[in-house]
Amino acid sequence: MKTLSNYSLKQNNSFAVDSISPLVYCPSSESDLQELADLLPASFYILGEGYNTLLVDSRAPVIIKPEFFGVSIRECDEGYTVSAAASENWHELVLHCISKGINGLENLALIPGSVGAAPIQNIGAYGVELSQYCSEVTWFDFDKQQLTQFTNDECKFSYRESIFKHGLKNKGLITQVTFFFTKKWKPNLSYAGLDDLPTNVSAQAVLNKVIEIRQSKLPDPNELPNAGSFFKNPLLNKADWLELKKLFPDVPSYPQASGHVKVAAGWLIQEAGLKGFEENGVGVHKNQALVLVNYTSNSGGSISTLANTVYNKVYEKFGIQLEPEVRAVFSTGESTLIRLSHG
Ligand SMILES: Cc1cc2nc3c(=O)[nH]c(=O)nc-3n(C[C@H](O)[C@H](O)[C@H](O)COP(=O)(O)OP(=O)(O)OC[C@H]3O[C@@H](n4cnc5c(N)ncnc54)[C@H](O)[C@@H]3O)c2cc1C
């Protein structure tokens, strides 16, 4: 198995901060994974393309960087089964499917990162989540040293959540994700920005529109390092939401099937007076308050301090505890980013 020593991860995280890992394992086969299972230290971090990862310390833990590639497509009367290996690029997969007339993932275009990371937080955008098309996840179990298949139900997907983020965290590694796309495709135009497209629009046209909107709204990590939405949109129960709405009638809110109400975290951050705030070479983006950006810092610690400032200011103003969407990795492994001074 390929290994790298004293490796700088500056090019492997979208905040572009420097952090050195003593050892990086790059498994690319099942036998590599079996070998790896015997070598695993107490703490390690599995890294995809690093678009949802904040390396907080200048030292990183042992890193596992899977290198599994390949896409296969099977057609049947009803639709297509597409299997993609974990290290394939997500957006390339979306483009590949649409170019073959396999529709469904167009709303999820331009989400940066790898296929293997996509089920971890059940990536979602423009009214669609991965869980709507994911039929199976192939996962290597470090204990049993074998591959296991998870059905969609077994993945326990919900908003930015899955079983891989919780009960199975660090117990194994995703090697492949399988999707099923029906031939009876209908566009999902429910989301603002897409709702003015005609109902007979092609998937390619939806894809183009999603790309256009995303490029106009979100800072490109290659130009201004960031990890997209830093915090999740909080889900409030009805009573808490009514209380909030009484005090802040303008709060953008989205009722959920569960009875909860999702509140726009970006709005909370903006109303806490932090839009465009800068300190130590990092800041809250001037147009998208949910995105923390790195202007000039080389240190993940600066982003971590900023995230704590944002958390505390929002809590002081609204009594709402934001939960980071970005994964925080310290020299000792992944841990919680927020030093709770409240709650
Ligand atoms: C500009 C921008 C826009 C974004 N927009 C969206 C959006 O619209 N919707 C959305 O949902 N997300 C969005 N994100 C977040 C990000 O794109 C996703 O979280 C993506 O899945 C990250 O992929 P990655 O390979 O870079 O993951 P990484 O940051 O490398 O890892 C993320 C998590 O996945 C785990 N992981 C990675 N690979 C594997 C594997 N093979 N097996 C097991 N665990 C693994 C890691 O341990 C970590 O916990 C955005 C990010 C950016 C920078």
Characterization of the model:
The protein is globular and about 55 Å long. It has three domains: 2-64, 2-Layer Sandwich (Uridine Diphospho-n-acetylenolpyruvylglucosamine Reductase, domain 2); 71-216, Uridine Diphospho-n-acetylenolpyruvylglucosamine Reductase, domain 3 (2-Layer Sandwich), CATH 3.30.465.10; 221-334, Uridine Diphospho-n-acetylenolpyruvylglucosamine Reductase, domain 1. 21% of the residues lie in helices and 27% in strands. Strand 6 and strand 7 form a beta hairpin. It is α+β, with helices and mostly antiparallel strands and 343 residues long. Flavin-adenine dinucleotide is lined by residues 14, 45-53, 66, 86, 111-114, 116-118, 120-121, 123-125, 173-174, 218, 221, 226-228, 327.
Strand tally, please?
Answer: 21
Global outline: globular
Helix content: 10-25%
CATH architectural label of the largest domain: 2-Layer Sandwich
* Biggest beta sheet attributes: 5 strands, antiparallel
- How much of the sequence lies in strands comes to 25-35%
Counting structural domains, the number is 3
Q: Strands, helices and their partners?
A:
Layout: E1 2-8, E2 20-26, H1 30-39, E3 44-46, E4 53-55, E5 62-64, E6 71-75, E7 79-85, H2 90-99, E8 124-125, E9 128-129, E10 134-141, E11 146-151, E12 172-182, H3 203-217, E13 226-229, E14 235-236, H4 238-247, E15 253-255, E16 261-263, H5 265-271, E17 278-279, E18 282-284, E19 291-294, H6 300-318, E20 327-330, E21 333-334
Parallel strand pairs: 2-5, 3-5, 4-20
Antiparallel strand pairs: 1-2, 6-7, 7-12, 8-9, 10-11, 10-12, 13-19, 14-16, 15-16, 17-18, 18-19, 20-21
Bound molecules: flavin-adenine dinucleotide.
Flavin-adenine dinucleotide binds next to strand 3, strand 8, strand 12 and strand 13.
